[in-house]
Amino acid sequence: MIFYKTLNNWYSNNKRELPWRQTTNPYYIWLSEIILQQTQVKQGLPYYSAFVAEFSSVFDLANADESQVLKLWQGLGYYSRARNLHATAKYVANELNGEFPDTYKDLLKLKGVGDYTASAIASICFNEVAAVVDGNVYRVLSRYFGIDTPINTTQGQKEFKALAQELIDKQDPATFNQAIMEFGATHCKPKNPKCDTCPFKNSCLAYNKGDIENLPVKLKKTKVKTKYFNFLVILSNNNQTILEQRQGKGIWQNLYQFPLIETKNEVAFEEFKSLVKEHSILKDKTFELSLYNKEAIVHKLSHQHLHTKFWIVKLDAPLNNGVALETVSDYAVPILIGNFIEAFNF
């Protein structure tokens, strides 16, 4: 059995019809690959459609305001992807006259483009023999060949990249790369893989050893930190609130949020009210405080869990630099805050 022939045959009969599979235009392929990093197709598809509708070319994306890009990205998470997307669009439009690099090596120089994305664009758009390796590929190869090298180690990454490069269809790398990713996403799934109808069943080492559930191997992640976020939703008597733009390199960079008081743990009402009284915006002002959600909303990020409460602050005074309540939903905010805004119905 020739691995790529079996795989490509499966793909021709089972592939999903997706809009980025109807083109080899590097702008659209790059856009889809950035969106699909850390994101499943079902979730990413409407975002891809929205971006293509709003920015039909790399020049359109380059000329957009960052706030517009972040707003369109809202809900996808990992917002550094959106900022890198915008930065790369500017670079390609302004420095490369709108032409994307046509080799794996040069694609790697673009901001936000790593080995996987460069391989995908190079193979799909320019027919370069560059094998992709993502979570789906790790899973397929580790199971089929019975490889227990941890995939989140340097050794594992090199081993699987070399293997994928060895297996790739040299005449049609684009189809092979899309086929192996599709096979991992829809057939050789993390849970409940379709082993009974798998074309590789007879030669898959993990299946024949009963080892499917144990592969691929991944070392334990960094310890997850717990943080306690308290957002102040200030409602003034002139129908305004306060939104602040996050600065620095931490989570949600350049997105907007309500004023935040971070505590070491959950605090009682009276203790928190004392903290609110000392806040620079509310000091020496008369206000009425109430808790919107008694149970903290736990928002899980890759390395931290945010235990979040929203506190409603009714202020018996106007705000000088506030935001009109009816415009709150126009701002690019983290999905955690976006969900609150939708539920609160300003």
UniProtKB/TrEMBL annotation:
GO biological process entries: base-excision repair; mismatch repair
Cofactors demanded by this protein: [4Fe-4S] cluster
Molecular function GO terms recorded: 4 iron, 4 sulfur cluster binding; 8-oxo-7,8-dihydroguanine DNA N-glycosylase activity; adenine/guanine mispair binding; metal ion binding; oxidized purine DNA binding; purine-specific mismatch base pair DNA N-glycosylase activity
EC number, UniProt record: 3.2.2.31
Superkingdom, taxonomy of origin: Bacteria
Catalytic reactions on record: Hydrolyzes free adenine bases from 7,8-dihydro-8-oxoguanine:adenine mismatched double-stranded DNA, leaving an apurinic site
Domain HhH-GPD: 35-186
Keyword presence, Iron-sulfur: yes
Keywords: 4Fe-4S, DNA damage, DNA repair, Glycosidase, Hydrolase, Iron, Iron-sulfur, Metal-binding
Cofactor: binding details: Binds 1 [4Fe-4S] cluster.
Family: Belongs to the Nth/MutY family.
NCBIfam families membership: mutY
Function as written in the Swiss-Prot or TrEMBL entry: Adenine glycosylase active on G-A mispairs. MutY also corrects error-prone DNA synthesis past GO lesions which are due to the oxidatively damaged form of guanine: 7,8-dihydro-8-oxoguanine (8-oxo-dGTP).
Protein name per its UniProtKB record: Adenine DNA glycosylase
Organism lineage string: Bacteria, Pseudomonadati, Bacteroidota, Flavobacteriia, Flavobacteriales
